[in-house]
Amino acid sequence: MTRRKAPMPLLDDSGAALQSRPVRKRDPAQPSLPFDPMPARIEPCLALLKPAPPKGPDWLFELKWDGYRLAVHIEPKRVRIITRGGHDWTHRFPGIAEAAKTLGVSTAILDGEAVVLDEEGRSDFGALQRSLSGRGGKRSSSEAILYAFDLLYLDGHDFTGTELSVRRHLLADLISPTSDGSIRLSQEIAVDGETLLEHACQAGLEGIIAKHRDRPYRSGRTGDWLKIKCIQSESFMVVGYEQSASARGGIGSLLLAARKGYDWAYVGSVGTGFKVKDADYLRKTLDKLKTARPVVPLKGKNLVFAQPTLIAEIEFRGWTHDGSLRHASYKGLREVQDNAAVFDIADRPSGL
């Protein structure tokens, strides 16, 4: 296995590396807490998209990781790795599972993101998909690591009702900030959100996450966690493709749609970002989903329409005046088990 580089340091104006907050020593005077049964599954807390980071001491900031959201359940006789959609993917992340067994706890639930790092130490969603052998693949990933950012349960105690600052403190006791193994700590960066966002964007990262220090762990998009992106990236439904005799795999571009109530709305096409192997797989899969009745009102002799089944992660720079994605680029397909939410047209900026 080739060891990937550590994440690239973010530098302040003086050239010094931005540092995480120092880890406090654990208070030996721990309260006597009652035993709590271990939950079989906890619905994840999700980040709400915002155009700018919040201000004030109530918020902590981390880098945004581009991968698969996972919950790692450490039990007395086994480890289970559960996707956002509730599917067991333990077999697909053996390195993370083995690392979980060495943490020295009898029971725990870690919340985090599985990623594959590029040569510069940045999380690369496409590389993660390739390591898992593409959407629907059965391979396990030997390259994936978990960046843990929350601790929901530990040795018989349920911490979902406890404020984030306490959960983070316990997590830092469990995972060393200097760990370079298959489970690492997603560190709080001790700068304001605007500064961190600026440096993250300069480093080519996807963005940052802001979390309210004093809030319990609440499932869903409550606003306790916020995401602020450098480059927009969302999930769209693939509803067909444009044939091309000269393009790789015979696909000139993919046709994309967003949700519109109980229907679909066409948001344009994407013709860049996929490799020959990606295009071959997409062509073969979409041909199996071919339909004569498109779910969006499009016509064209070179267009092949498909049933709305494949979900693609698309990076883009904004929206055109007619409501299409601007400068779109394909990043990869989302797994069904990842339970990715397809972009809703109601969330598009007003005025379009």
From TrEMBL:
It comes from the Bacteria. It catalyses: ATP + (deoxyribonucleotide)n-3'-hydroxyl + 5'-phospho-(deoxyribonucleotide)m = (deoxyribonucleotide)n+m + AMP + diphosphate. GO terms for molecular function: ATP binding; DNA ligase (ATP) activity. It is an enzyme of class 6 (ligase). SUPFAM superfamilies: DNA ligase/mRNA capping enzyme, catalytic domain (SSF56091), Nucleic acid-binding proteins (SSF50249). Keywords: Ligase. Its EC number is 6.5.1.1. The keyword Ligase applies. This is DNA ligase (ATP). It comes from Rhizobium giardinii. The lineage of its organism: Bacteria, Pseudomonadati, Pseudomonadota, Alphaproteobacteria, Hyphomicrobiales.
